[in-house]
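Project outcomes to date are best conveyed with an example. Our students and postdoctoral researchers have been running inverse folding experiments weekly, and each run begins with a structure described purely in tokens. The record below, which covers 540 residues, was selected by the lab manager from last quarter's runs and is presented without edits.
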């Protein structure tokens, strides 16, 4: 909020940049606290007190005025609020995803709550664990100290992804107001790539994407904030930082071309297109080629990127009109495409897979698509409102269909959520849990009880869950459990493994199928203490 005092842009620009700047500063302060060995809450709380005092001063001296929001600002905020409501209600319906990256991020937040430390390093320096992006987790830690980990993981990523369309709107409105609302709707609802981060648990990537948009906006209205935003991108996800550098560099180059004679611009443009075409011919992009060779993959690709038709029309308009916004949008889209091609063919494969890098293309395509729609309505207010309502209707339906398509196959069943909450309510002392599948990994972030199959095994033998799955009554299994020396050793079998053995959730190819569990737990060694969908056994 204090950013509203000095930002040269509109009120909505100041508000959206304030959120991004607050995210970065809270992340930096949390990481700094972790590096010097103090509770991250101390520097984060100190920062909040300073910012609150600045807000009070700003309002008292009439420097800050939230009444500056005009009608279009309120409409855009309403669109973002609609996205937020849909996302939160959906997560409330499924409780949580069964496994995947979401549980990993929740485990890292729980580790900070338990007083643990998360190492923070640079990519390609040290182990993968050291430079795995942890900015989101330090940012979420502040909220997890107030709310539950479950609430934070359900709500905070949706909030972050709802701010990204506001930043895109501000980028457009600072240069061409008539296309801003269209860009908001396209960025929020029409491109599934935007909210797919919520499905596969890409919360660090979603945070970095939001800060990437904030970096571009900073270049337009508040250049002093750009280095801070880029530092936030680095802490959130270094892969997106590589894209951010490419985007900003391409935009700078495109801006400098404006000073050249138009014939020179055309020559340089043709040379750039020829160079990209030559590169594609000599270096086969495997991922993009597979889209054309695999019918299922091709249909999935079209379903994700069908709004790009509008962006294609907008690209033609941008090329012919060639003003500041046009150059920025084209440079942004071109930079992402080049990065994807280089990653697909080899030279930049170290920064990420092409399918993941391609997700960042939705932001510039939203701007280009908005340019096309603004030209189509030609300033007609009734036509503009009709276009926006139609886009909202299509976008909301598309988002709900996509989210629901994963709810049944990957959403945590209510039986498992209730079982984990039952464990939490027991307040068992000195307890550990041998979870036989990925769903049981949620026990640690939601209850604080260490699990065998998770990122933090707590002294478990790596082979113990597989041994229990094969034969829970094997003397070697009984001896291994006894060696744990705990008063309460729980064996958790999810309802998924019981009802759907061999099930493979989407995006969980690395975790493997849910196991076929040998359910012959002998009453001589195990007590069945919970049997309502999922099963929980306690070792005697």
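After processing, the design step wrote out the following sequence:
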């Amino acid at each position: 909020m204090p950013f509203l005092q000095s930002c040269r842009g509109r009120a909505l620009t100041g508000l959206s940049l304030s959120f991004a700047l607050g995210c970065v500063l809270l992340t930096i302060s949390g990481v700094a606290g972790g590096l010097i060995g103090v509770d991250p809450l101390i520097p984060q709380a100190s920062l909040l007190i300073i910012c609150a005092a600045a807000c009070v001063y700003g309002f008292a001296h009439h420097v800050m005025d939230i009444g500056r929001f005009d009608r279009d600002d309120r409409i855009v905020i309403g669109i973002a609020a609609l996205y937020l409501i849909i996302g939160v209600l959906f997560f409330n319906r499924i409780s949580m995803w069964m496994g995947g990256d979401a549980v990993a991020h929740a485990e890292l937040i729980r580790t900070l709550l338990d007083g643990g430390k998360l190492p923070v390093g640079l990519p390609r320096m040290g182990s993968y664990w050291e430079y795995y992006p942890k900015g989101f987790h330090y940012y979420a830690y502040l909220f997890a100290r107030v709310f539950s980990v479950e609430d934070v993981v359900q709500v905070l990523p949706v909030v972050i992804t709802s701010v990204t369309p506001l930043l895109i709107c501000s980028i457009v409105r600072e240069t061409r107001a008539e296309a801003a609302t269209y860009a908001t709707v396209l960025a929020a609802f029409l491109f599934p790539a935007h909210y797919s981060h919520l499905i596969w648990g890409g919360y660090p990537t979603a945070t970095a994407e939001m800060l990437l948009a904030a970096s571009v906006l900073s270049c337009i209205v508040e250049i002093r904030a750009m280095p801070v935003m880029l530092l936030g991108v680095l802490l959130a996800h270094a892969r997106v930082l590589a894209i951010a550098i490419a985007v900003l560099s391409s935009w700078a180059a495109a801006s400098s071309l404006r000073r050249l004679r138009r014939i020179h611009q055309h020559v340089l443009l043709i040379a750039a297109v020829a160079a990209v075409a030559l590169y594609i011919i000599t270096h086969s992009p495997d991922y993009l080629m597979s889209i054309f060779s695999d019918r299922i993959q091709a249909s999935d690709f079209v379903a994700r990127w069908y709004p790009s038709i509008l962006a294609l029309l907008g690209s033609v308009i941008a090329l012919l009109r060639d003003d500041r916004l046009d150059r920025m949008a084209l440079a942004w889209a071109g930079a992402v495409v080049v990065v994807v091609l280089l990653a697909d063919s080899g030279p930049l494969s170290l920064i990420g897979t092409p399918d993941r890098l391609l997700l960042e293309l939705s932001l510039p395509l939203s701007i280009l698509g908005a340019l096309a729609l603004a030209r189509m309505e030609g300033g007609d207010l009734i036509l503009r409102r009709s276009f926006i309502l139609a886009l909202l209707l299509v976008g909301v339906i598309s988002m709900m269909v996509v989210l629901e398509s994963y709810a049944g196959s990957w959403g945590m069943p209510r039986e498992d959520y209730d079982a984990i909450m039952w464990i939490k309510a027991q307040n068992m002392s000195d307890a550990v849990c041998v979870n036989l599948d990925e769903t049981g990994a949620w026990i640690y972030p939601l209850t604080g009880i260490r699990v065998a199959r998770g990122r933090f095994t707590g002294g478990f033998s790596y082979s113990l869950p597989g041994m229990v799955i094969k034969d829970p009554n094997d003397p070697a299994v009984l001896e291994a459990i006894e060696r744990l020396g705990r008063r309460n050793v729980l064996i958790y079998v999810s309802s998924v493994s019981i009802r759907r053995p061999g099930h493979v959730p989407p995006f969980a190819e690395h975790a493997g199928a849910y196991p076929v569990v040998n359910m012959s737990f002998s009453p001589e060694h195990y007590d069945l203490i919970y049997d309502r969908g999922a099963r929980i056994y306690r070792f005697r």
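DSSP finds 25 helices and five strands in the chain. The mean pLDDT is 86. The training component of this project remains on track.
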